[in-house]
Specification:
- By secondary structure, the chain is α/β, with parallel strands linked by helices.
- It has one domain: Alkaline Phosphatase, subunit A (3-Layer(aba) Sandwich), CATH 3.40.720.10.
- The protein contains 12 helices and 18 strands.
- 51% of the residues are buried.
Length: 449
């Protein structure tokens, strides 16, 4: 996994970049960037960009999106539903801002799959495929299915040096293991994401690995690019291998990235008006969403933003206190700001948003006033990019335990995403053993299109 870390340079060369920094640039690009040799023709889709928002931990669907006010107290819990601005759709009383924006998003209330393990279930959310070891916290493998964004990078390659896939908020871990599915899997290192681990809400936030020293101008970068190309050509003559080939392309991509004023500008949150930064809230997650929007607007086709404010959604205990005091107020303020901002900028219709956890919570409240893992049914939020707003797909039963109608799963969300992005869900890509693999085993959710 490619990580972009906060830090300071060491032992600089005479022209400003240290040997360590140069090696890091080459390594970053080697992981991030060999363009595929071809792309698959696909039907037109309205989404030009993908924003995946991970609410890792398992948000309590029946306390947020799919409330059951007529159920017994041990099931319905403490919260009351409120009407949204779309007749017939109600959500929790603790999302007042989002209740006024229901016309901009849709709810899939009949999500279901059989995996109650954090790591393996989140893998399924990121990729659309079940993990081969369900109900576990597995470690990443080169045989993993690739994330949505890595597939998009493979099938819709850019011709510029703009990064194709960036993760904001660091990668996610559970029980000390990095959750699989967040990266390129069997697609290989060319389709790995850039990962920004720093806190964009921190004063002076910057990404030094993607920011050359100020004394290095465009001419110097061009000269370095020429030198790198010459060295690369010599290397290819002596080392004709996939690794050498990938490194050469990656090094060129690194210099193209360094020369991209648009990306450097997007990473500078100080250029954003104070009122906009305040609207997103001065929190890690809020500023991460803002940074994600800026990167998408700058031309990055796929961004993942991971939840990072208010604690985990894994509310085995004190579910209602955590939701009411921390999680829901933070989510309401930040997600509503994102939807409003994209809508006002005219970007929502061309930006597909997937906002989901890996599962929901149990129908019954446990002895610690919490709810436990439950994949029997849960809710995913979709918006923009070809998704009709103000709709609900599917229903759950009276206990919010299982789908009552129109059951769908992560594979169907993946098929919907690819369809909206203009990529046929039936497309196949050769894996590392040259076997054809479908990018999705689901069907688009037609009721939302």
């Amino acid at each position: 996994m490619l990580r972009v870390l906060q830090g300071s340079p060491h032992s600089q060369t005479c022209d400003g970049l240290s040997r360590r920094e140069l090696l890091r640039f080459g390594g970053l690009a080697a992981l991030a960037g060999v363009a595929p040799r071809g792309s698959l023709a696909a039907p037109a889709g309205s989404a030009q960009r993908l924003l995946f928002i991970s609410l890792f931990g398992g948000p309590s669907h029946q306390d947020i999106w799919d409330m059951k006010p007529d159920a017994p107290a041990e099931i319905r819990g403490e919260f009351k539903p409120i009407p949204t601005n779309v007749p017939g759709i109600e959500i929790t009383e603790h999302l007042p801002r989002l209740s006024r924006l229901a016309h901009l998003y849709s709810l899939v209330r009949s999500m279901t799959h059989p995996d109650n393990g954090h790591g393996s279930a989140m893998y399924t959310a990121f990729t659309g495929f079940p993990h081969r070891f369900p109900n576990t916290n597995p470690i990443p493998s080169i045989d993993d299915s690739p994330s949505y964004a890595s597939v998009v990078s493979r099938l819709r390659p850019l011709k510029t040096g703009t990064p194709q896939f960036i993760v904001v908020g660091g990668t996610q871990f559970v029980c000390g293991n990095q959750i699989p599915g967040q990266r390129a899997g069997w697609l290989g290192p060319a389709y790995e994401p850039y990962v920004i681990n720093g806190d964009p809400n921190r004063e002076g936030f910057r990404v030094p690995e993607l920011t050359p020293a100020p004394e290095i101008g465009a001419l110097r970068l061009d000269r370095r690019r020429g030198l790198m190309n010459a060295l690369d050509g010599a290397t290819r003559l002596s080392e004709r291998s996939d690794v050498a080939d990938s490194l050469g392309v990656a090094q060129r991509a690194a210099f193209e990235l360094l020369a991209s004023e648009r990306i450097r500008a997007a990473l500078d949150l100080g250029r954003e008006p104070v009122a906009v930064r305040d609207r997103f809230t001065r929190s890690t997650f809020g500023q991460s969403l803002l940074l994600g929007r800026r990167l998408l607007e700058a031309g990055v086709p796929s961004v993942t933003v991971n939840w990072s404010t208010g604690g985990p959604w894994d509310t085995h205990g004190s579910n209602f206190t955590s939701l009411k005091q921390k999680l829901l107020p933070a989510f309401d303020a930040t997600f509503s700001a994102l939807l409003t901002d994209l809508h006002e900028r005219g970007l929502l219709d061309s930006t597909l948003i997937i906002c989901t956890g890996e599962f929901g919570r149990t129908p019954n409240i446990n002895k610690d006033a919490g709810r436990d893992h439950w994949a029997g049914v849960y809710t995913t939020v979709l918006a923009g990019g070809g998704i009709q707003g103000g709709r609900v797909h599917g229903t759950s039963d009276a206990r919010a335990a299982y789908p009552a109608s129109d059951a769908v799963g992560p594979a169907d969300v993946s098929a919907t995403a690819f369809h909206c992005l203009g990529i046929s869900p039936e497309s196949e890509i050769l894996d590392r053993t040259a076997r054809p693999q479908r990018i999705s085993r689901g069907e688009p959710i037609r009721s939302l299109l």
